[in-house]
Amino acid sequence: MENKENNDNKDLITIDYYDRIHKQWIKVEVTKEVANFMKADEQKTRRKQNQYDYYNIPLSHFEREDNDYTFDVIDEDSDIEQQLEQIQLKEIEDMKEDFERTLIENSLYVLTPEQREVVEMVFYKNMSYGEIAKALNITKQSVCERLKNAKRKIKNYIKNG
Length: 161
Hints:
It is built from seven helices and two strands, in the order αββαααααα.
């Protein structure tokens, strides 16, 4: 019985894998054992990376020329500390937006290829439901259903992490 289970784990299957270098989804043939390991490892790595990204500011952030920490004082009576605080609050808000965007992008791997395709068309290519339906040769209702199910999966993934 155990021998049959080992044979099942050695069978090749095709999985969707996100190539971070080329920033695209690719199909990869791996054994079931490797696929299970990659899924578990990927979830753990993504959680750690998201946590790291949220709490750490890279040194390059301070080396960029667009981070000019000098500013023009418009009103001599204005509070410099208040202006600095506003700049810092804006930078923190920008980092939170980047973190949320990364979290959502990382959650795309839980979607089926069909759901992922619809999500990318809606949110990255800004296509209408009608355009998507025509491009995929499906009904608008199918587009709505795929998007609704994808949003539910993403929400559950983020909630349960």
